[in-house]
Write a structure and sequence with these properties.
Length: about 170
């Protein structure tokens, strides 16, 4: 009996550890998506949608609560898309690769690439080329088409749902 109880405890501990590792991996992917500019792109898209909706549904007393909700929930909505994109990246890149990719985007070259590629220094361009010539860099390049298709599908669904909710709140 004691062996059965110990076995059950052992397997429960393993399951808990595996679950915690998956959460950590997802968090690392989301950190990568923030570092590589993805988060900023969706923040920009969210702001663009609100600007477009402002023309269609100007702020009035009748729709004030809807506008307040939309303005206050930008971060939540952007975090939602990052959560939706996480499994896409997990299907293509392991945890170590995500870590390496994040490290690149935390470098001066990676930050400059995101902020303004045309202003990269020769040393930053050299670092970028060196990164793309690594095994991981080549994998990133080879996955671009497939990733773009999957990301596009997730983005379209997110955008459609966001638009529908926003219009529903503002009508």
């Amino acid at each position: 009996m004691r062996i059965v109880v110990l076995s059950i405890c052992f397997f429960m501990c393993l399951a808990t550890k595996a679950g915690a590792q998956e959460v950590e991996y997802a968090t690392e992917v989301q950190t990568y998506l923030k570092q590589n500019g993805t988060s900023g792109q969706y923040e920009y898209a969210y702001d663009g949608l609100l600007k477009m909706l402002q023309n269609q549904y100007p702020e009035t007393e009748a729709n004030q609560k809807g506008w307040t909700f939309l303005k206050e929930n930008k971060n939540k909505s952007v975090n939602e898309i990052l959560t939706l994109l996480t499994p896409v990246y997990q299907r293509h890149f392991n945890r170590e690769e995500i870590s390496e990719m994040t490290s690149f985007y935390e470098s001066d070259a990676g930050r400059q690439l995101i902020s303004d590629r045309s202003q990269m220094t020769p040393a930053q361009k050299e670092e970028l080329n060196a990164y793309y010539n690594t095994t991981l860099g080549k994998k990133v390049i080879s996955k671009q088409t497939e990733l773009s298709q999957e990301i596009s599908k997730v983005s379209e669904d997110w955008s459609r749902q966001l638009y529908e909710v926003a219009v529903g709140l503002l009508k």
